[in-house]
Amino acid sequence: MSIKVLYLEDNVWDIELVREALSRGGQFEVKDVRSIEELKEALKSSQFDVVITDLHVLGVEGTEIIEVIRSIAPFIPIIILTGTGSEELALQYLKSGAWDYVIKSSKHIRKLPHTISSVLDRKKLLEEYETTEKALRVFKESISSLIDALPVGVLVYKGEHHIFVNKALEELTGFDRTELLRMPGAGIVHPEDQKMVKERIKLRERGFKVPESYEFRVLRKDGEVRWIEFHTRKIHWGEAEAYLGVFFDITQRKKAEREKEEAFSRLKSLLNEVVEAFSLAVEFRDPYTMGHQKRVSELSVAISNELGLDPEKIEGIRVASLLHDLGKAVGVPLEILNKPSKLNDIEFSFIKAHPEIGWRILKEVDFPWPVSEAVYQHHERLNGSGYPRGLKGDQIIIEARIIGVADVVEAMTSHRPYRPPLSLEEALKEIKENKGILYDPQVVDACLRVFEKGFSFGKD
Amino acid sequence: MILLVEDDPMDVELFEKAWEYGGSKEKICVANRGEKAIEMAKIPPNLVILDLNLPGVDGFEVLKELKNDSFTKWIPVVILTSSPKEEDCKRCYELGANAYVVKPSSFKELVELTKTIKDFWLSFNKIPQKGAV
């Protein structure tokens, strides 16, 4: 393909000179114009690769010519033809936008084809450079807008210095980019969490391992506190190593967790209140046993602790012991409960029914512990002599074995319509004598240790 | 005195050698079981270096005991373990560990590590610890 040259010249002799210089090789297609107006017209067609111009055309100054060309075709290479002795001037024109110059003499003009291809090479290089530059700029802008569009706060830091922040972090903290970049390390962290965060940054720098994610609070510019889940990784930042910190706002999650915990603890205390109200209901009916269930519950819990049971299991024992005589309140006539003399067989059969009645009522409640079963079994005895089902040994759950012992000890030491209270020694003697026969030996031992350690029933 | 809690005799020997090579002169006492570590911590040592994988009472339990006891909670504890697990690291810091580091694979790195631990310990002593008498 030929190179299209636009040539501004009003001297016909010079035109011949240039045409001849460019005719060799045949790759140039020259169009000559004689005036500025013609030049403008030709440039507007934008079909030329290069412009060659004389410095003085019909009295127009070289600088003006260059300006005209650049205003129409800003990127077209311009080569100036200059007379011998005006080389200094030509250098000046190079500064105002010409790409190269050739001296107008038969000797120098031969170099013109070479000069043209050299400026075209330069133009190509420049275009490549600009394309790369533009691609880089576009890439940088895309990355930057991508990071800004992320819905999580991003911070790049090195030691105590913040190097980069994104838009989400500005929104999260209420501080703008400049403020964030000037801030000392951990500056946005809530003062109460700063020590921990700074320590971790230091430990990591020293070469210790710290968690890659942890939680802390951020104190916003407006004073509001936000909970953050912070993730951090080592990255390459330019030539050096730095750390990337990502901030997830978990304030809502934290709030929901707290509300859930509060609701759960409200429910737990509600359950407790209902259990205690039920427990009281039994005792209202039978004043002789006032406080009995509560005291049995205290002793059962003390024995369970002594046995080293799981806290969750102990809570079940506490609840079951508070309700163990529920069946008495609803199923046994008052006259029998408060009868001052020995009960006959029929009367005793009413008494014997109370664990089952308690079980029938409580089994409808979905406790997380075996409450109804413990109530059902609390009068069963190790050798099978208990009631209502005559269960033996391991058939009786640990909850019932504990409540059984605590119930006996408490009942013996309390006043009953048919007898005065016995002493604690007598009560303990009873369980010792029947240890391994009626009562679980481990539970009895634990009960004895509990009293040795100074346990006493609380008085209401 | 430094208390090294480590059940592997090989690891104990390597650590003692590395400690010496690293130019540290403090005496190292060794506990090869968790129970023994808790007992020896009452002496008390100036620094505890604790392995997590121990027979009987494990390193997490030892750490919990040391940090829950008002007498031993001020002793800096460095966890030296073969576990690079994020959850173990997290749990140790939650239980009050002062630093966590994964056992290096070469002796040279171990020597460097003893220096790091010593630097950390010296800087730790400079900071007045909250509640320390």
Give your account of this protein's structure.
With 460 residues, chain A is α/β, with parallel strands linked by helices. Chain A is built from 19 helices and ten strands. In chain A, helix 15 (354-362) runs antiparallel to helix 16 (371-377). The longest helix of chain A is centred in the first third of the chain and has 38 residues, at 112-149. Chain B is α/β, with parallel strands linked by helices and 133 residues long. Chain B has one domain (2-117): 3-Layer(aba) Sandwich (Rossmann fold), CATH 3.40.50. Helices cover 45% and strands 16% of the residues of chain B. Chain B has a five-stranded parallel sheet with strand order 2-1-3-4-5. Chain B starts with a strand and ends in a 7-residue tail after the last helix.
Strand fraction of chain B: 15-25%
| Order of SSEs of chain B | EHEHEHEHEH
- Spans of chain B of 5+ residues with little confidence (pLDDT < 50)? 129-133
Compute the number of helices of chain B.
Answer: 5
DSSP strand (E) fraction of chain A? 5-15%
- The helix/strand series of chain A, from N terminus to C terminus, equals EHEHEHEHEHEEHHHEEEHHHHHHHHHHH
The description of the largest β-sheet of chain B is: 5 strands, parallel
Quickly give the CATH architecture of the largest domain in chain A.
Orthogonal Bundle
List how many beta strands of chain B DSSP finds: 5
Q: Gyration radius of chain B, to the nearest Å?
A: 14 Å
